[in-house]
Amino acid sequence: MSEPLLQLEGVHTHIGAYHILHGVDLQVAHGELTVLLGRNGAGKTTTLRTIMGLWKASSGTIRLEGREIQGQPTPDVARQGLAYVPENMGIFPDLTVRENMLLAARAAKREDQIDVRRLEWVFGLFPAMKRFWQHPAGLLSGGQKQMLAVARAVVEPRKLLLVDEPSKGLAPAIILNMIEAFRELKAADTTILLVEQNFNFARQLGDQVAVMDDGRIVHAGPMAELAEDEALQTRLLGLSLASHQ
Q1: pLDDT tens digits, residue range 86-145?
Q2: Entry's InterPro entries (predicted)?
Q3: Strand spans (E) along the chain
Q4: Of 51, 128, 150, 178, whose CB count within 10 A is highest?
Q5: ∠ at Cα 113 (109, 115), nearest 5°?
Q6: Largest CA distance in the chain
Q7: Comparing C-alpha atoms, which of 69, 108, 104 is closest to residue 83?
Q8: What are the chain's domains?
Q9: Are 52 and 224 in contact, with CB atoms under 8 Å apart?
Q10: What is residue 245's predicted lDDT score, i.e. its pLDDT?
């Protein structure tokens, strides 16, 4: 088997006096979408933030393409090809969509330096970004802000995209649009680690799944296997995917 793109081994994270991650072992394969599931407070967001260096691992190893990245400053981690879309989206509301995108395109100082073909591809994923190009991001709807958050993350090619609950609070029609966008990203060989509470969303997109509980990975395997096993869903998550159609 080929080496995973991302690998966590025995990762512990403390936040102040709180011990959040208790030896997380996780692998993310090249070109696949891995879904990280678990109840609220299980440690999913802490895992993403620890990978990005926003919170420091207390111990353990985080490798990207075989190279250790734990302990590196977040900008250095990002320069190695990682992008993070937080649950709160992290957009700049007083800046226009254009200005938000330009800030994310690190190789460009001006709009005309953004890769035109890449930008048109992003517009294909999220047409609203082209329509509201000169609008302040703070005036966008919740769904449009989420689209902008993902669009910023992929305005340049990335090795790995970390996304925290992209469907949270979105209307069903916007969720369908987001599903199609992530399918396009997968087709473009984008590797994604996705935290998600909408299990139907997760089932439609996931190649692999890892389930967290109390700061540990308690299950990992193909998403299709978990989707077909209601007893396993109930044991791991306290409910079945069938109840979230």
Answers
A1: 998 889 999 999 999 988 887 666 777 778 899 999 999 999 999 999 999 999 999 999
A2: AAA+_ATPase, ABC_transporter-like_ATP-bd, ABC_transporter-like_CS, BCAA_Transport_ATP-bd_LivF, P-loop_NTPase
A3: 6-15, 18-28, 33-38, 57-64, 67-68, 82-85, 160-164, 191-195, 208-213, 216-222
A4: 51
A5: 130
A6: 54
A7: 104
A8: 1-81+160-245 (3.40.50.300), 92-157 (no CATH)
A9: no
A10: 44
